[in-house]
Amino acid sequence: MEAEEGATDSAEISTPEAQAIMNSGINDIKEKIAGEIALSDSPGSVMKKWRELFGVTQVELSKQIKVSPSTVSDYESNRRLSPGVGVIRRFVEMLFEIDESNGSAVIKSLEKFSNPATGGRKPFYTIHDFTAPISGTDFARIIEGKIVVNPSHLDSIKLFGYTELDSIRVILEMMPQEYPLLFGSTTERAFVFEQVSTGRSPMVVIRVAPIKPKVVVMHNVSSIDKLAIKLAQIEKIPLITTKLSIEELRERLSRT
After folding, report:
1. How far apart are CA 125 and CA 181, in angstroms?
2. Using an 8 Å Cβ cutoff, are 47 and 87 in contact?
């Protein structure tokens, strides 16, 4: 009986309806990527960002979309005119096909981090993506950050965006299944915590979480709790403080 029940479960998972739902989610992600490229003031930089997120080389991509590597390079450096709809469509499709041939790791990650309905509740976080990735060092410089711990790790970090979080609401309201949503489309991002007193609670959340941000910023805090510093050291996460207003921080990072 147990074997029969297991077979039934497997059959239900692979029903046409379930497959249609999965395909719909993937198509939504493809449309989001294509729309971001098409609407960007720097479409080539956005193409480069997504290519790097998918872990695809220029040579590999050029073979798939049947252009020369120099053409891909020209698009990404914005030396060519903005790509047309056909180029963008082939670009996105090839990224997904290449990832599928490699086990769909990136696609699964994007599906996992796709935002569900919030049920009418006011969000306690805001996701910001950069047009092009920046180094951890440049990120700290742009926000006039004071590096509390792990400064040597910043040079090797590449950030594709950041997430603003209301630290109080994270502690009081966030459900465990919501945590992956804080990363948007990639884990290569910084967390910027607002409403912080000592930084201990946010670092405890990160310590026990299965996925970690690459950089943590405590906004407008006078001093960092010793345990928060210790946890950042254990996790090897650069911990930064900044006195910039959130509005100024957003404005500066929007120029990247």
Report:
1. 9
2. no
What are φ and ψ of residue 116, in 5° steps? -85, 180
| Residue ranges, the chain, pLDDT below 70 | 1-24, 112-121
Place of tokens 């928060």: 228
Residue appearing with tokens 């049947």: 66
The rounded distance, in Å, linking the Cα atoms of 250 and 256 is 10
What is the domain extent for residue 79?
2-112
Whether 191 and 241 share a structural domain = yes
Number of H helices, E strands in the chain: 12, 6
Question: Tell me: the pLDDT tens digits for 24-67?
Answer: 678 888 888 888 888 888 888 889 989 988 999 999 999 988 88
Per-residue pLDDT tens for 88-119?
A: 999 999 999 999 999 988 888 777 666 554 45
Q: Do 96 and 152 lie in a common domain? A: no
Which element (helix H / strand E) includes 188?
Answer: none
